[in-house]
Amino acid sequence: MLLRELARAQRISVKYLEQLTIPLRRFGLVQSERGPQGGYELARPATEITAKEIIEAVEGPLELLDCMSRPASCERATACAARDLWTRVNDAIGDVLSRTTLAELRDAQLAAEAGKAPVYQI
């Protein structure tokens, strides 16, 4: 699919979409082909791409707090009850994102759009 078609369909700018495709390509989630028949496509089936992969490709590792991966960033990291709580919350979020595929998100979006009532303007 061409980026301009995808941008129009998703109501986002082409420039923003171009920025997103860079890390998605680097992480092997999309691939591109140049030329008149070129465009972008998923590198794997949508059923095999998780929400966590997409988020981590674009945003980096899933961490709610700096001290989760870099305990040295906080002098209290080794004796902090809140850090333990946030680690469990972070793990739970990661688990949900790991179990949610791009195909599931697509299907949920299509179902949501199908259920919308038409808007009439006079």
Overall average pLDDT: 89
Portion in beta strands: 5-15%
Helix/strand class: mainly alpha
- Radius of gyration, rounded? 19 Å
Report the end-to-end length measured between terminal Cα atoms.
35 Å
Q: Unreliable stretches, pLDDT < 50, 5 or more residues? A: none
Number of domains: 2
Order of helices and strands: HHEEHHH
Total strands: the figure is 2
Instruction: Write down the overall geometry.
Output: elongated
**Numbering strands along the chain, what is their spatial order in the largest sheet?**
1-2
Note the total helix count: 5
The largest sheet is: 2 strands, antiparallel
* Percent of residues in helices: 40-55%
Oligomer: single chain
Task: Outline the structure in words.
The chain is mostly helical and 122 residues long. It has two domains: 1-43, Arc Repressor Mutant, subunit A; 61-116. Helices cover 51% and strands 7% of the residues. Strands 1-2 form a two-stranded antiparallel ribbon. β1 (30-33) and β2 form a beta hairpin. It is elongated.
What does the secondary structure layout of this molecule look like, with pairings?
Elements (H helix, E strand, L loop, with lengths): L2 H8 L3 H13 L3 E4 L5 E4 L8 H9 L21 H19 L2 H13 L8
Antiparallel strand pairs: 1-2
